[in-house]
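not sure who needs this but someone in the group chat was asking about Fatty acid hydroxylase domain-containing protein from Hebeloma cylindrosporum so here u go. i didnt clean anything up, its just raw.
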Amino acid sequence: MAFNGTVPNALNELYPGLTDFSSLNWFEQQWVAWYVWIGNPIIATGLMSFLMHEIVYFGRSIPWIIIDAIPYFRQWKLQPNKIPTAAEQWACTKQVLFSHFTIELPLIWLFHPTAEKLNMKTYHVPFPDLKTMAPQIFFFFFFEDFFHFVAHQALHTGILYKHIHKIHHKYSAPFGLAAEYAHPAEVFILGAGTILGPLIYCFFTANLHIITVYICIVLRLFQAIDAHSGYDFPWSLHNILPFWSGAEHHDFHHMAFTNNFSTSFRWWDRIFGTDDKYRAYRARVDAAKKAMKNATKEQRVAMEQKLMEEVEAEGVKAEAEAEARGIMGGSKAKVQ
């Protein structure tokens, strides 16, 4: 690994005594090169964190944009009559970028100083092994899921819904880009669940590397975008892991407004009974399919569409009631 003559001070300051770079793997070498090239750990961590989020978020959303444009995939679309238009995709993108630049970008420069205060490793190498990272990542997902379950329900009440969470429910049939289509305050509130878990863990253990946090964030972005994709494939993860949430679980939340408040796992909704309408809906769909086993494909599609419309009509009423508990009350027309 070679560095030019402009960075020896940063190299010596950040990695004193580290001379055998050949002992590092390729990724660790690039990690060192990045921090040495930037020369300031605060800027290096902040810039890398922001770029990683933008690249992963929009990079993961692109496949879903392509899938939405190909009619072949409609057979797996949960609400096949609601395909986002190019105008809706662009409007969504602008709101997401607005939230990222008004909330994430200003706050992200506090991440490295906070991490250092809690003794989190940032520019350090080598990275921890998988045996160390795996249980940490599971804990972070577990913590975030419960935090989101509680905070998400709070966002469905009165003032919080009317003035904050209402934006995210613009689309009764969500799509990948809409995962972070939200009021900046909601981005801050729910984003706190993602970062608080690692910070609390590090406070008590002082044994955490930021690379573990990054891996968790990348996986969380994949989960959130896929859950909003609006597609349920035979190979979707919830068909392999029954406790996993996925699009089939979260799509109902957008369609019905109530139920299914958690993100990654289904167990909190099951334990606290906030999936009762969802399970009743699934039971009705299964029963109708059995009763119409000899019906044509068009008849079965019409049946499912009718059930979805009934659920959405109930959701509009529930949403109006939640909004009415705010300061002024109100109603809502969903985007089709």
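also The chain has one domain: 24-70+84-324. if thats useful
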